[in-house]
Automatic annotation (TrEMBL):
InterPro entries: CFAP46. The gene is Cfap46. It comes from Alca torda. This is CFA46 protein. It comes from the Eukaryota. GO terms for biological process: axoneme assembly; cilium movement involved in cell motility.
Amino acid sequence: KEILEKYHDLFTLKWEGVVGNIRVPSQAEWEQLLTNCSAFLFYGLERFMSHILLNRLVAMNIPKCHLIILLDLMRSKQSHQRITKSDIHKSCLHIAIERPTETAVLLSLTGVRSIIANQWYTTLQENAERLEILSESLLNIGRTTGQTVHILQK
């Protein structure tokens, strides 16, 4: 919410989606947001792919999406319990496909042009700092995604 308020005058008037932890988006909402966006930001707990149905994602066509930013792989006690219960019903192959590299490959195959994503688990504070850097670099300064990723790597 702080990011939305801070960059309100730049681009965020055109943003739509689900903000907060009031509810989890439905599968239809995920699909609608992904197919109608030019950029998509996921800032949430656990693996992004644990929130969306794999078979529905691979059938999607998302060529209008130029950039997906996945600030996922954060963990709380509750999210860890949820994901553990969910993973019991998945095959080892399905869980492997939800890893960061595989997620990037799947998103790329659906037509997404650029993907910025975490490679390993992180803290809420570290992802908040990444989101601030990404927002400042991309929205305020106007750096390219490559320049912004280079800054994040430092």
